[in-house]
């Protein structure tokens, strides 16, 4: 629930930012000065990129939640048995030791989105967020295609 609230707050801040920057961009463009017009157009590009990134991340979050819910309802969500530090992070050695099981599952069933999702969770436990996101995105694409 905290994640959803934080995402909503960030989306509202981005919306406020977009409105304020768009107002400034409009004022620059309306001056008619070439440098101001170029600056105004440039100011419009940044909010558009921000909105694109926000929408992509929100969609990723929604799809991830749907996959978690589906696996949970089917009783296929992996049990979180990797010990954690006091900070809440996984113990790296234990996560690394558990990782080969999930990698092997993907090799055994490369067309199953569930194995890719679990591999993403294993990557996350090992601290490799980039590969975790790639695996979860692949799982989402495979699930959508099915």
Percentage of residues in strands: under 5%
> Residue-averaged pLDDT, rounded?
89
Largest sheet: none
Low-confidence stretches: none
Tally of contiguous helical segments = 5
| Helicity range | over 70%
Helix-strand pattern: HHHHH
Question: What is the general shape?
Answer: elongated
**Separation, N- and C-terminal Cα atoms:** 29 Å
Overall SS class:
mainly alpha
| Annotation, overall tally of beta strands | 0
Radius of gyration: 21 Å
Brief descriptors of the model:
about 150 residues, mainly alpha, elongated
Describe the structure.
- It is a single chain.
- The chain is an all-alpha fold and 146 residues long.
- The chain has 5 helices and no strands.
- The protein has helices at residues 2-31, 34-73, 92-108, 113-126, 129-145.
- Helix 1 (2-31) runs antiparallel to helix 2 and helix 3 packs antiparallel against helix 4 (113-126).
- It starts with a helix and ends with a helix.
- The mean pLDDT is 89.
């Amino acid at each position: 629930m905290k994640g959803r609230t934080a995402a909503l707050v960030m989306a509202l801040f981005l919306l406020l930012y977009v409105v304020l920057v768009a107002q400034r961009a409009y004022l620059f463009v309306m001056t008619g000065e070439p440098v101001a017009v170029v600056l105004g157009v440039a100011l419009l590009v940044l909010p558009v990129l921000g909105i694109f990134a926000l929408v992509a991340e929100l969609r990723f979050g929604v799809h991830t939640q749907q996959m978690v819910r589906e696996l949970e309802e089917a009783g296929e969500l992996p049990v979180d048995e990797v010990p954690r530090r006091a900070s809440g992070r996984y113990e790296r050695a234990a996560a690394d030791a558990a990782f080969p099981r999930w990698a092997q599952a993907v090799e055994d069933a490369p067309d199953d989105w569930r194995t890719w999702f679990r591999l993403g969770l294993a990557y996350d436990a090992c601290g490799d967020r980039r590969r975790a996101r790639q695996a979860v995105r692949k799982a989402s694409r495979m699930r959508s295609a099915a």
